Amino acid sequence: MIKTAVVLAGGKGVRLRPLTLTAPKPLLPVGNKPILDHIIGLLVSKGFEKIVVAVNYLGHKILSHLLEKYLDAGVEIVAPSIYPEDTADAVRKLAAFVDEDFLVAMGDVLTNIDLRAFADFHEKSGAFASIGLIEVPSVRDFGAVILDGRWRVLHFMEKPTPHEWYITTVAYSTGKQRYMQPYSNLANSGFYAFKVELLDVLSENPHLMDFGRHVFPWLLENGYNIIGWSAGNAYWIDVGRPASFLAANMDLLDGLPYPLTPRGSPRDGLWIGEDTVINESVVINPPVALGDRIEVLENSVIGPYAIIGDDVKVGRSSRIAYSVIMDKCTLEDQTFVTNSILAKNILVRMRASVRESVIGESSVIESRLEVGPGMIIMPGSVLLEEVKNA
Question: Are 104 and 211 in contact (CB under 8 A)?
Fold first, then answer.
């Protein structure tokens, strides 16, 4: 049984800026729990005993989190400083910590894929590599595959344009291999299983840097057996943009990625942390997730679809809905936040409002200002006048 997993947690998350200018993408919270913790928790629940985490960008923050969270967690967590150049290079540089067939998992997606079923499938198949596949409306933003009737991978393309994918599928459908069917709605999930011999391949071929762009095409060209595995109806979302980050949080409140849940004690659509004080006049419209040590003052309305982090203070007669408020924010009296993401340590002064916007860490929004819709505010900003998308 495969018991080792490599979690790739080194990406810069450029499309998630400004949130990732001050926090690594795997530590961004979904339901008041870092994305990375959801992945590690899923692996542990499926019997993986050794988890090797590859870090790079803002890696010191991830390392500090792992030490604090998992030091006595009963699972072996290894996170050496390796500074990889890309996904496959990360696995290459972690070879000393992997001594058996292994799983590779992306540390920046939210999913409830049955990773034990995937690993067991790989072992039984005898394939050199297996690719977890998910159904998507369009493969243009993902790795796309062409499979034969036995789900062997015949061709792999990373983020093909519609024209490239059309030409490729036509070639496989009408050429000498016309009996082979392109599965055009199946995309690479970012979860792989490999025989341990992959480490030798990577060592002998240092030019193979990325799994999608280099490794899988090279393996196919050199006759290695790669097989696809369907994740079925599993939940999966790439938390790669502010809109999908917000959607992942809302989906978690709706229970779509079950058994993943927000942090806190559940009660009728409300998850609440420790030492949180809610005034009796406050209206809570579930689903809502509240972190630790939150204070919400009189006559405020929280929800629906509000996620509020630790050490947040919400003033009187305020309203928060369809939004994520991260740790240590202060919202003064009569503030209004909807369809927005507020990073850590933000001050929203009295009667200010934020609509459909993303506010970077440690920013200040002065009294009575209207921010949004459609605004992206950089970390450390002090807003003194209204800002709206033209």
Answer: yes
Q: Give the CA radius of gyration of the chain.
A: 23
Q: What is residue 70's three-state secondary structure?
A: helix
Helices (H), the chain: 35-45, 59-70, 87-93, 115-125, 162-174, 198-204, 216-221, 242-254
Residue-range domains of the chain with CATH: 4-238 (3.90.550.10), 263-383 (2.160.10.10)
Q: How far is residue 147 from each of residues 96, 151, 181, 325, 336, measured CA to CA in Å? A: 33, 5, 6, 43, 50
Buried b (16+ CB within 10 A) or exposed e, 121-145: bbeebebbbbbbbbbbeebeebbbb
Query: Rounded distance, CA 132 to CA 189, Å?
Result: 6
How many helices (DSSP H) and strands (DSSP E) are in the chain?
8, 32
Q: Are strands 270-272 and 186-194 parallel, antiparallel or unpaired?
A: unpaired
Amino acid identity, position 315: G
Q: What is the per-residue pLDDT across 322-341, written as a single tens digit (0 to 9) for each?
A: 999 999 999 999 999 999 99
Peptide bond into 379 cis (omega under 30): no
Q: Which residues pair with 355 in a beta bridge?
A: 338
Nearest to 54 by CA among 16, 21, 26: 26
Q: Which long-range contacts (CB under 8 A, 24 or more apart) does 168-176 make?
A: 172/146
Residue type, 240: G
Give me 341's structure tokens: 């993401």
Query: Which DSSP state fits 287?
Result: S
Read off the pLDDT of residues 192-236 as tens digits, 9 standing for 90 and up. Answer: 999 999 999 999 999 999 888 889 889 988 999 999 998 988 999
Among 19, 300, 347, 275, CA closest to 290: 275
Element holding 270 (H helix, E strand)? strand 270-272
What span, in angstroms and rounded, lies between the C-alpha atoms of 46 and 75? 12
